[in-house]
Amino acid sequence: VCAVMLTMKIFRLFIWGKTVYCSADYYKHHFQAITPPEPFLWLWKSKCIPRIKFFTWLLLQDRLNTRNVLRRRNKHLEEGYNYPMCHDNVEETAMHLFFECTSSVARWFVLGWQWSVQGSLFQMLKQQNRHVQSAFFMEIMVAAWCLWKERNDYVFNNKVPSVQAWKRRFASEVKLHLCRIREDLHVQIMNWLNSL
To answer: Residues 56, 125: contact at Cβ < 8 Å?
Structure first.
């Protein structure tokens, strides 16, 4: 008795039109109809270092560990949930910490920016992006990062905050990012920093 084995190749054609599975292709196909809000696109295309991108992502998602978020997670704080750098007895929310508090307004003013705190954070960022004539979007992220670092220095290290110290930190952070930015923008950025 002779048995003849026929081997058949089974071809799979995935819904994205390829015969080989690739997770990147799956995600492209699955999420092709989803458009993220513009600030997320600006965030991931920015030239910021990864920790500042992650910090900004947390801020945009309202997941930054402000006292308000800790309260929502049922974490008890003996010193309360008010913003420690503010004398207005206001709960520390991301909006208050970065945009509404007089100390943060003073820091943004140093950069020549005024925020309209009408609407959501996404609307505020879109409006600011239209009005600010700058070469790159990362200044907002770096400035917010410096506000967060100043807040943490005050809370955890008892360092007294000052506009001048914040300005020095901001300039230092931007200078650290110069290696990530096109060289033809360096002179413009340095001139802007020196004018602050």
So the answer is: no
